[in-house]
Amino acid sequence: MWLRARAPFAAFRGLQAGVYRATAPVLPPSAAWGLVLNLAGYETRGPLDRPVTGLREGLPVLRIALGEVTRPEVFSLYQQLHSYPVGTSGSGLRPRTKGAKYWIAPVRREFLSGLDAVIGVETDDPALPARVRRGLAGAGEWPRYGLPFAGDNNLLFDSIEVLDVPVPCRWYSRLGPDDQPGPVTCRMTVGIDREESSRTSSAVFGLGREPTTEPPESAWTWTPRVPAGRRS
Known about the structure:
The chain is mainly beta.
């Protein structure tokens, strides 16, 4: 199935430290996987009685392709980051904040303006396409919470629609060690491990130079992992 997602603003930031937080230029495969399952009414969260909320077992594995209809612009803004610092930095401030986050530092965060993306989805789950359509129509019979958001939970989509065929767009393909970079080259997350970040997987992607209707084979990525017996 094919989805077209449009948002006035979006931000897809991976796990980053430091004072500059970059965004991916499009939904990473991991974010597209979560969005599709959210629309289909699949609860991705594991048990909530643990210190870190993991992923539920038995969730569908998807083969995802990502393309951009138009190039979003990248902007940045400064924000105050409130945190509990690692180590003893600012520990003298802790008693005065009564349990609140006591370390405040300025950070610069990127965001996208004008996201217009196509998501290709292949799955062995025969029920998933129909569930996505019901979810988008507000006809899902499953419990729901919140709204689909464009990477940051205060940035919402203008529209998400199902396409019979994809519109022409430039696709992000996985790059190997000997491949030439595209006009835009970036590393994006493929599978997120919430309990142990070192097990989070990522890959390098390059944007195609010419728009096409069908994505090349190199644009398809299994997420969050390659199923047993399948090729990557």
